[in-house]
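S.,

Sequence below, as promised.
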Amino acid sequence: MNWGKIVGTMICLCLLSQSVWAKSVFIVADEWPQMDVLEAFFEENGYTVDRAEQDKMPDSLAKYDGVVEFIHGAMEDETAAKLIDYANQGGRLIVIHHGISSKKKQTKGWYEFLGVDLDGREGIPKRYVWRHDIELIFVNLQPEHYITSHNVQYNHIIDYLPSDQPSPAQTLPAIVFKDSEVFLNHQFTDGREKTVLFGFTYIDPDNGKTYMQDRSGWFKRRGKGWAFYFQPGHSESDFQHKSYCQILLNCLTYKP
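The prediction came back faster than expected:
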């Protein structure tokens, strides 16, 4: 019996198995300190991570189990087209924080793909605005859902009145993000296509008004794949909440 040949074959099969089952994520971003924290979390949980700014993206993203979009500035139309195609062809696209912002309103097809809009005109009701360096309370609206619950720990309980009215006030688990940023008045343009997972509550320090909006985390079917959005992500400290990173990881392992 040729033991050398047998051992060699076993090693090859092992390497082949690892390559077949390897899990990988691609991050496209233009701010990296926050993504450094998220990348480390993904790697701790068995994923390999590739990353690039939008002008260095590969032509195809098909090989990745998930793609994270974290572009603060303007998004090029070509970048959006690649991300949209990735999701439509069966990928899981995770859009974080300023993936929905005033600068993205100019990106061809992006808001139509996500089913959102922003109206920042002065003086109108429900005007889109942002406030940074604030306390953002990230409220779990679906405590039994896999994405919100699998290996996720919540250390706060919040009394929350859903913005989907009429609804009664509820007591729900939450994560508190210090020195974060809130986006007010994201508008949904796709009816009930989204599954809304998280809302937020925020107290404006200037006027003392409390805002509660069911807009802080959701997902929807896109073609053969999925698009996810989560509002926290302003600073590194947002991603230092392990539970938040776990929520993002759960999007990659969720089985509808």
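The chain is about 25% helix and 35% strand.

Coffee later?
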